[in-house]
Amino acid sequence: TLRVDTAGSGPEIADSMYGVFFEDINRAADGGLYAELVQNRSFEYDPADNGGYTGLTSWTPSGAAQVVDDAERLNERNRRYLRLDLTGSGGHGVTNAGYNTGIPLTRGDKYDFSVWARTSNAAGTPLTIRLTDAGGAVLARPTTLTVRGDRWTKYTATLRADSTSATGRLRITATGSGTVRLDMVSLFPDETFLNRPNGLRKDLAEKIAALEPGFVRFPGGCLVNTGSHYGYEAPNWERRRSYQWKDTIGPVEERATNANFWGYNQSYGLGYFEYFQFSEDIGAMPLPVVPALVTGCGENRVTDDPALLQRHIQDALDLIEFANGPATSPWGAKRAAMGHPAPFGLTHIGVGNEENLPDAFHERFLRFRAAIAERYPEITVISNSGPDDTGPVFDRHWQLNRASGVDMVDEHYYNDPRWFLENNDRYDSYDRSGPKVFLGEYASRDNRFANALAEASFMTGLERNADVVELAAYAPLLANVDYVQWRPDMIWFDNHRSWGSASYEVQKLFMTNVGDSVVPSRASGTPALTAPITGAIGLSTWATSAAYDDVSVTSEDGTALFADDFSAGADRWTHSSGRGTWSVQDGAYVQADAGAQDTMVTAGDPSWSDYTLRAKATKRAG
Ligand code: AHR
């Protein structure tokens, strides 16, 4: 029985309440939302990004093609290029295989090719550009352009596909003599979302836009803070997984690529300007997250480097100026130079992600907040609460956040559907005078209809508490089926198709039907939950496995890998493999050695990306 108090008044619901969380995981950016079709376009892939990479990953050279890093480079931030010494007979060139299965081509569609090039041949060097299938059959009329002069210059051409293929290739051949140098070899579909230059893949962007999200949280998750303890300026060009927003703006050929936390290279072609632009294009509030020098995501590292901390704080201030400052301000001018003189209207900024060390994090968070409040008092600075929905780390975060009068706290949790059903009332008892909640990441662990239904049920509890829960985002947003590191996900895609999960439909239902205010209601006679908790808890278990017992893990083919029933209270269970160690103690995840969580979750090593562990557990009594 549902009793609705039509005369009563509940909390108002902000239009921006439901949003999306974008992170470059599962190839969500390069090979996903970012429409670039050429993989490793600047020849910067490096074993430090991923053990399997070289400067020629995704490229097949012919003749004397080699990747070099020398003084003739395109610029200091784009250091490697392809050198072709046109000697002897035979063709000299290079073929790109795109991402995963190949370059998707659609009959009749146009593709915009560009390359930076220079030649030592005073007579010029003709370059022939072809779109082919995997076997070399030509799929578009070839085009030839002539490189002239020994200074780096950008050349462009447009090709029209005569056939459709999901396994296309881009082939470039050079003729003549001398040395020709190539860099930033690029191919975009002529049509991108709203036809923005350096734009986004249309079908994916349209699916996100169709949600009508209230905000876009970017650029991650774990991607944000891990590695922030390293400096990020030359002369140290080591790849260290450190995401710095300043690396991601300006001309794309000057954005130094870097290792992504999730085990592949990130080109930053989809960078902070593009995130702000996309948010504006879809009517969503931009919500960037910056690192706080205390890492989470399995690293538990605190950086005691006041100068580096100060620089990160300054970066946060500069970011606000980049978003909101007048075009005459130093960082506002950079935004204007990229084609957006008007401010983007930033109102919220997140500091940190899932820190396991609340005290160390909070100390640094307060430094960020003070600096931002002094210069931009109108900006809401969001703190966080660690990786779990409950427990000592979570409690300590909240204690500190309350004591400091924090405006808003980011919560994250990935749980089984039953948890979502059982916790509909989670926010009913939250302190109305304390910090507001930004539910920055949540999902029930699978992509079945029942998961989506449990999420929908839970969202009614979020909405009922809209006076406390101001923002909420399902996570993660995107997954390339050929590069899955984390599931469930909201939108799935391959190189040429995309589809929403059942959870996508639930999110869309809520986002496109945001009410004005809650009408109080009460249900009675609802059936009790009786089903036992069993089933796959998946690779993301490490983040939220507290309260589980009787753990067993098998490979997908059913081979038992390890098990423990935790019969003794203080039982400790450790699994070690060549790829790292992870431990469970008394039913709770304890610790993984460096890299182990990466290994389990990110599958940066290609031999792991297809390898699914199934973990079964029963919930501890109580
Ligand atoms: O959404 C995937 C990951 O889950 C995020 O990077 C991290 O914040 C969380 O643990």
From TrEMBL:
Catalytic reaction annotation: Hydrolysis of terminal non-reducing alpha-L-arabinofuranoside residues in alpha-L-arabinosides
EC number, as in UniProt: 3.2.1.55
Keyword vocabulary terms for this entry: Hydrolase, Signal
Enzyme class: hydrolase
The keyword DNA-binding belongs to this UniProt entry's keyword annotation: no
Highest taxon listed in the record's lineage: Bacteria
Family indicated by similarity: Belongs to the glycosyl hydrolase 51 family.
Protein name: non-reducing end alpha-L-arabinofuranosidase
Residues of the full protein shown: 35 to 656 of 835
